[in-house]
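User: I need a structural model of Hemerythrin-like domain-containing protein from Microbotryum lychnidis-dioicae for a docking pre-check later this week. Nothing fancy, just the predicted structure tokens so I can convert them on my end. Input:
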Amino acid sequence: MAATTPLTLAQVITPSREACNALKVNSNSSRSTRMSKSSRSRTNDDDNSSCSDFVSPPPRNSTEQREWDRMSTRMNMFHTHFRQTFANVWRMSEKVSPDELQDFLDYAEEFVHHLEGHHGIEERYIFPVLAKKMPEFREEHLEEHEQIHAGMDRYQDYIRAARATPTAFSPEKLREIMGLMGPILFYHLDAEVETLKADNLKRYYTLDEVRRLPM
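Assistant: Understood. Predicted structure tokens for Hemerythrin-like domain-containing protein:
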């Protein structure tokens, strides 16, 4: 039987929503499902109708354009950090020495803690507001969170196991886990920013409403 060719970083960070299916099989996460269901229940009681025929007028000047771009620009700043950290963990795992392992595991675990915190803030404070008008925040992006967290759980479990038994740490195994999580994570990091771009926001909000949106 031919050996399986290891995934490259370029393959792992190629966005794909199809990765949801692979992660569902391995998911034992109840935390993300509970959070997502809670977010859905908060929005179901609100007026979640969208104005499909409504489009706000174009910005009159550069200041208004920046106001329209605020949501996507700020979200992309956060997401760029996660893209870079994911890639750093992957590259560092290829050359980590036994003496550096604990420091590496600290760094690798910080990534998942920061991502979990980011998603928690979104689901508690931002998604319920946006979901009143934007359908992507009622279903699609919540489902992506669930599948990302399934991968995060496996990732964190492996890091904890490596702490307990450092000699059993396998960079190949860690990258295998990251390989399952990467495509849906990078899809989501791109898709959420696209959803918040001005051309899409104009379908649901006036500029005054956008100014009041949390971010």
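Before docking, keep this in mind: The longest helix spans residues 62-93.
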